[in-house]
Amino acid sequence: MTSLIKKNASGHAGDGDANLLINEVVGVPGGIGESARLGRASAYDTFLRGLLPSREGVALIAVGGLGRRQCAPYGDLDLVLLHAGVPGTDELAASVWYPIWDAGLRLDHSVRTVSEALSVAQDDVKVALGLLDARLVAGDQTLADALIRTAADHWRRTAVRHLPGLRAVTEARWQAHGELAFLLEGDLKEAAGGLRDVGLLRAISAAGITDALRPAVRAAHLRLLDIRDALHQQVGRRVDRLVAQERDGVAALLALEDGDALLRRVAGDARTISHALDDAFRAADRLRSGRSRGGGAPPARRPVARDVVEHDGELVLARTAIGARPDPSLSLRVAAAAATTRLPIARATCEWLAAYCPPLPAPWPTDARAALTTLLGAGPGLVPAWETCDRYGLVDNWLPEWTRLRSLPQHNPVHRYTLDRHLVQTAHEASRHAREVERPDLLLLGALLHDIGKGLPGDHSTVGVPVAQAAATRIGLPPTEVELIGTLVRLHLLLPDVATRRDLADPVTIASVAESVGDTGTLDLLHALVRADAAATGPAAWSDWKGRLVAELVGRVRTALDTGVLPEPPTPDPALLAGPLPVVHLTGDRVSVAAADRRGLLATVAGCLALHRLEVISADASVVDGRALVECRVQPRYGLPPDPVPLRADLRRAVGGDVSVTQRLRGRALAARGGGAAPRVVWHREAATNAVLLELRAADAAGLLYRVACALDEAGALVRAARISTLGADVVDAFYLVGGWPDDATRARLEAAVLAAV
């Protein structure tokens, strides 16, 4: 065959030319779905048969996707040229491989005898798995059958021994690629729950360990293959990572509503596959454990809860529970037993519960409520038990709202889980704080329901209240507790929002929070909930400084609720009020400056900190005994703290009016302007004492506080304090402007100055 394109250094054709060449040279059809994949496999087979001359003792074997007849539009060809020691094998191999490369196809190839192939498979479990997909394409049928039969028999005899090592390799891959179900841009092949894991399930089934390829798994596998087909077709080349910019196009090719519907499908299928693989690995562990016991007496049944017993490391139903009319709370009680014992529920038990356990009445019986509390408070055992029940549809019986929440993506980059998993994870994290509150049961339920309004139009903290209260009523809570659940949902963001965006020394701030919360019991529940919510969200959602701010707010509000008296604002550091000016103190995450009173001091300090790559979290400006004081909390922008010696020197020079420092920080800060969505200014009239609040919502950028503070100063506003809240790529910066409510013209002028600075 004449070479039609120039191969790259690896011998592979460029992806950009592959579509044309595959269609014109090989005649491989495009398209999405099982019939399209079979059509591609047939076309490849026809093409490859024309490359291998009829010769005894030689066979062309397909493995991988072609071996399974599951060819992606731009997948590799995995081929083995099998021979029986015939002469001229190298030349024969070249006559097969080069036309494949010339056709623009990616090729993974090897040339081996049967004994060589089996020897490699014995040493490399990945090769052994690959041979399970082996299929003759052309050549000597007897030779091919010898390899295929022997490889399959060898795997059946050695699989149990090889699986622990294979599991370790698999877990390392999961660690590298993450969980497909919870990734916004996951690798459809390599991530946990992806296509490579289906290969493991197929291998475990081939070994006769368990029926790992159940109908739900097969359906999930076919859907993931369809998604990969659509991704290849959308991008026009081989790619396995479903990136954000391709989601809507892939969804359209699959006739799905939008990219979110696609993500939900991927997440659901990946979780089905992951759960099946966990179950299959446990079956292998049980089989290996039984063999180590020498095939003696069967394991005993040990009661662990009412109607629940342990059998061979799994939870199953007691015989009396199966024979009697099922109790509607049975599925919840089994789940609670699994969570508290950290033992998996047997597959057959889950299937029986899904088929025969009757729906829960409204309101729930006492046993069901108690079981739910036990389940939610079980700690680390909650998540796997809940996930198992969800895979079999049991959770929908408990909470009909779960259908809407299941696998709903959360596009904020700080979130590491889909919405449903986030809610369960929050309940798990809340169990760590159960002893800090008067009603741990309401904390756990509030944690499970706190984001139930997401996915509905409007503010989820508001629209979620009636949904959560309806669920709490159905569960059987009395009206006062139902109302409290609604309060937790409505206010679950109050403490972190106020702590990071408002002046905690201002009595108005404390009075407003105290009025919203109402009592110390609710305050404790909200404090526990916010910490659990942040821990379940991801590491970017919480930090030591945010924890300190929230704790400070809670302490001040508690004092107000206990005594009815608003706490006094903290006094300045006495060291700032003594000694010659300027005074600069650097202590941990605090930067404190005292200088001669003048306008623009806050902007100068903020700019100098930006010059040294420090982000300002909060800033306070005041005048005491004729001294201007600026106190800031900071954190390094890029993780590494600056050298304190030049920082202190620059601060002294800058607040002392050194023009060279001012010019240097102005130039650098202005060069650091960020992009992003259009900024917005929001005014708050009664949120502060003797001040109004200007809130800026904009894209994050180095030096932003400096530029805005300069703009406000030049526009004639006096900034008393600033609070900076970073939310992913955006910030919400609150500026306390001294004085009364400005007129319309003044507000418009200040707003224009701020937006121009951004």
Automatic annotation (TrEMBL):
EC numbers: 2.7.7.59
GO molecular function annotation: [protein-PII] uridylyltransferase activity
Pfam families reported for this sequence: HD (PF01966)
Highest taxon listed in the record's lineage: Bacteria
Residue span, ACT domain: 590-666, 693-758
PROSITE patterns to which the protein is assigned, alphabetical: ACT, HD
Top enzyme class: transferase
Keywords: Hydrolase, Magnesium, Multifunctional enzyme, Nucleotidyltransferase, Repeat, Transferase
Residue ranges annotated for the HD domain, each copy included: 419-526
SUPFAM superfamilies associated with the record: ACT-like (SSF55021), HD-domain/PDEase-like (SSF109604), Nucleotidyltransferase (SSF81301)
Name the record gives this protein: [protein-PII] uridylyltransferase
Source organism (scientific name): Micromonospora zamorensis
Native organism taxonomy: Bacteria, Bacillati, Actinomycetota, Actinomycetes, Micromonosporales
